[in-house]
Structure formats: structure tokens, C-alpha cells
Amino acid sequence: MNPTIQLSPKKRAFLTGTLLLTGTGIACRVLGFFYRIFLSRTIGAEGLGVYNMVHPIFGICFALCAGSIQTALSQHIASHTEKGRSIFHTGLAISMAMSFVLALGICHYHEFLATYLLMEPRCSPYLPIMGIAVPFAAFHACINGYYYGVQKSKVPALSQIAEQLIRMSLVFFLAGFWVSHGQEITVMLAVIGHLIGEIAAAVFTLFCLCVFPPQPRTSNLSSNHGQIATSGSLMALALPLMGNRLILNILSGAEAIWIPSRLQMSGLNPSGAFAIYGVLTGMALPFILFPSAITNSLAVLLLPSVAKDQAEGRKGSIASSMSVSLRYSLYMGILCIGIFTLFGEELGSGVFHDPDAGQFIRILAWLCPFLYLATTMGSILNGLGKTRTTFLQNTASLLLRIAFVLVGIPKFGILAYLWGMLASELLLAILHLWSLKRLIAFTWNAWEMIVKPSLILLISIGVHYFTQGLSPVTHLPSFVDTGIQILFLCFCYSGLLLVFHFAKTKTQKLKFF
Fold this sequence. Notes:
By secondary structure, the protein is an all-alpha fold. The chain has one domain (9-216, 226-444). 84% of the residues lie in helices and 0% in strands. Residues 1-7 and 219-223 have low confidence and may be disordered.
């Protein structure tokens, strides 16, 4: 009889969750691309720039009342599964109370925030709508944190799909309605779309929570003393994350505010500055971040998994998770360098009809390995309880990028910001790896993780060029043709990786015998 590989329930849940989140993440990115294309052709690059200027306010509020509490819920529930329902109720109550206060503040002071904080009065009418979205975002973030904590990722994954589909359907309908009535389409369409998406996700997760609860309902209610103790331990986890995310979002917001003003100092007029900013953030970066659907899914599930392993004293399991995450983050990052440097121009011109987008994609291609590494390694550090370390390292990375914005953009234009992104992500990845190496002894092999996939990528590119023009199908649309070439390169790269992997496994077995 041939032995079969038996996965433990923990590993099976982790693998299933990662695959599910990755699949839905990729589906959401594909839908998001169509949505971005639609927005770029309705509100334009300048409109995208103004729309992205509004997000720092929402990001700061989300960091305070939702993101940090979601992470704390996921981590705390993973370590105390038997108290999961009580922990969730406590976290939800705290999160919703904070979100309503923040939403009222945004709605009341929107003119002040737009004029003196964002330094762009055109953002004023959009801020109240973003403020209304905050409680809905906090609500579904807490529910998602509950599901992640018990390692049931189906509902959070499906909520992403529901959010995108409902947002796109209603925004397309609204745009058609406005056009048919002779009304101009402005940035307001994108802002309303954001609110629609948050409401859709909140309603969907609430329905799932009622129909498919993460844990069986029990009749035992926690005492007031228990609730107070739970809130104390939960906030002990959430407050450092809250402070960290708040500062990081303030720095990110400052960066977003300074980029257009510094571009104007480099010689661009206000319209041109916002257009360049819109091309970068609304067109080029979504391509670079598209593959991160995989690493983001891995990171979301790594945090509670690592927290559980640490609580149970399983250092070997943590080391194994780190080695696998490191290997596949590098594999994917190296492949993305090849894809975006080869096809960046075609992607920018074919999808968004903007040559600047293609140039930005090619430059930012070198960001991919470090970006994906930093995402997964940072999640492991948070899972180990090293939130202060990740905060300090993220702050150092952001400060370096802001230095490029303040000093470099007036002299070198938007290219200085691209260089700053590369430098900051490289610094962050190195700092995360250095910190993890001091905590856990994990396997690191430069040949297997960097040199081999780089050589395989070069071979795959050679095969691509050798076979170019051999396809019997001609006169395809530019974007379709580019997509087929990218899929062929991915097939060659992954196929060669598998061949080398099985060849190595076979050699090791022969040596053993």
C-alpha cells in the first residue's frame, strides 16, 4: 500500500483558508481592475487623485476603531477559543462606540479637515460620506476578526466578493442613471461607491453571523466581571496596535497630502500634479499590488496561527511557517519582477491608455519581492506579540519614504517617490527578517530561495522569446495578447520550479537508499 499524506486539522484549516482567501482575493482584484478602469475613464486621472486624497481620513479612523481591534480579536480569540463569543461581543461594543464618535466628528468638521488637514478644499463634500462609511467598516471588520480567530475564513472571503459585486453593480447603475439625466459624473460617484461597498460587506457578514455563527450558541452569558476582564485583556492587545496604526496612517496620510504639493514645486500645475498622483495610485500601484492577494491571504491567517503555536509552545511549527512563507514570497516576487518589467508598458497602455502608468509599473516591478516579504514577515512578528517591533520598523520605512517625498520630488519629480518606495520596502523587509532571525531559528537557503528562481525566470523569459510569434491565433486585442503571454510565462516558471523540486526530491531519496 502506498502511504498517504495526512494533514493535521490545524494545517488543513490553514491551507484551506489560505487557498480560499487567495482565490477570493484574486477574484476581487480582477473585479477591482474593471472598476478602476471604469473610474479612470469616467472621472479621469485627476479625479482619481482627488479621490485618493480623501482616503487618509478614512484610514486614520479605520486604524483607530476597526483594523487594530480586528487584529486583536483574531489574535485573542485564537489563544482563547472557548471565550470567543464573549471576546467578540466586547470588541464589537468598543469598536462601534468609537466608530460613531469618529463618524460624527468627520461629518461636523469636514470643511476644516479638507482645508487645513488635507489642504484641498475640493475634498470637503466627500468627507461626510466617507465618515458615514466608518461604522459599517468597523462592524464587518470585527465580525471578520471573529471568524479569523477560529480559523474559519469562508465568510470573510465571501464578504470581499459580495462587497465588490454590489459596489460595482450599483455604481454602474448610478453612472448610467446620471448620464441619462444629463448629470455630470464627478468624484462623488467613487465616494458613494466606497460607502456602498462598506454597507454591503456589513450586511453580508451580519447575515452570515446570524445564520452561520463561528461557534455554537450557548445560553451562558458572561458576568459583568468577566466582560470587564475580557475588555481589559483585549484592549491590552488592541491599544499598542491602535497607536501603531494611528501613527502609521498619519504618516501615510501626510505622504499622500505632500505628494501633490511637492509635484507642484517640481514645476507641474495643480491639475497635472493630481493627474500624475492619480495615475500612480489609481493605475500603476493596483497592478503591482495585484499578486499580493496571495501574500495578504497568507498574512491574515498566519497571525492567529502563529499566535496559537506560540501559546502552545510549538516553536518548530512557527519556524516551518516562516520558512514556507519566505520561500513562496520570494518565488512570487521574483516572477512578478519578470512580468512587470517585460509587460509593464503594454499593461499600462492597454488597460488604462496611459503611457505613464506603464513606465511606473516597470520601475515598481522591483518592489515586489520586498513588498511581499514584508507583508508575511510582519504578520508573523505580530503573531509572536512583537507589535512594538513592527511598529518601529514600519515607522522607519515610512519616514525614509517621506524623506524622498520632501527632498527628492521637488528636484526629480515623481521618479523620486518611486525610488523612495523601493528603498523603504527593501529596508522594511531586511528589518523584519533580522528581527525574526533573532527570535526563531528558521531555515534560510539563498540558492533555493533567490538564485534558483532567478535562473528559472531567465530560462522562462528565453522560452517566451523563442516561442513568440508561433501562436496560430493572430490579430488578438492588445490586452488579450499580453494576458496570454503573461500566462505562458507563469506556466513556464511554475512548471520549471516543479521539475527542479521533484528532481531534488528524487535525488535525496536515492542518496538515502
